[in-house]
Amino acid sequence: MNFMNAKNLLYSFVCLCFAIVIGAAVYEHLGVVPQWSAAPPASLSMFQGKYGLAAQNFWMPIHPVCLVLFILNSVLFWKTDRRKPLLIAFGGYFLVLVITATFFVPELLDITGTPFSETTDAALTQRAKLWETLSIIRMVFLIGLAFVLFSGLTQSGEKKQVI
Predict the structure, then answer these.
(1) Dihedrals phi, psi of 26, to nearest 5 degrees
(2) Is residue 21 part of a domain?
(3) Considering the domain boundaries, does residue 163 fall inside one?
(4) Residue 17 maps to a domain
(5) What's the predicted TM-score (pTM) here?
(6) CA separation for the pair 157, 163 (Å, rounded)
(7) Cys-Cys crosslink for 17: which of 9, 33, 49, 66, Cβ 3.0 to 4.6 Å?
(8) What radius of gyration, in Å, describes the C-alpha atoms of the chain?
(9) Is 159 inside any structural domain?
(10) Distance separating the N- and C-terminal Cα atoms of the chain
(11) Per-residue confidence at 3, pLDDT binned at 50, 70, 90?
């Protein structure tokens, strides 16, 4: 395998990693979030107990892998047409991670950490619905970034010639 093929493969890996992140987000929004946000704290049982959902076992390792792949690709494709889509997607993803760490994760942990009760708390349900709505906006933004990143596959990975 020559160097250019290896670089193209690495670009494909960053696209794959980013697609995995988005696929997991779509899955959570279709299959998990509607369940726990329906009527908290009564609907929070999936997070409780010894066998509660531990989504962090996926999210915590995937983000560093994606970040490393973004950094490697940014270095390898710096002087090519792929730099722009890489930097746009990387910058947007990094921004999303900062917002996720400062708002989404603490709010999610606060909501899902509420002790189980058979009753429904209207204020908690409202917070859960707001979290869900904002998270869907975040997911749509990530999908847009994926289109930008994937567009780099159509661009040359060869260094630009200065004339």
Answers:
(1) -65, -45
(2) yes
(3) no
(4) yes
(5) 0.91
(6) 18
(7) 66
(8) 19
(9) no
(10) 30
(11) confident
Would you state the pLDDT for residue 135?
98
Q: Is 38 exposed, middle or buried (0-12, 13-18, 19+ CB in 10 A)?
A: middle
Residue type, 116: F
With cut-offs at 50, 70 and 90, classify the pLDDT of residue 70.
very high
Range of the domain at 77: 3-154
64, amino acid identity: P
Helix H or strand E encompassing 110? helix 105-112
The total number of structural domains in the chain stands at 1
Give CA–CA dist 44/53, Å, rounded: 10
Backbone region of residue 8 per phi and psi (left: phi > 0; alpha: psi in -120 to 50; beta: other values)? alpha
What is the average pLDDT across 74-81? 94
What the block records as the tokens of 156 is: 């040359």
pLDDT computed for residue 116 by the predictor:
87
The DSSP H or E segment spanning 26 is helix 3-27
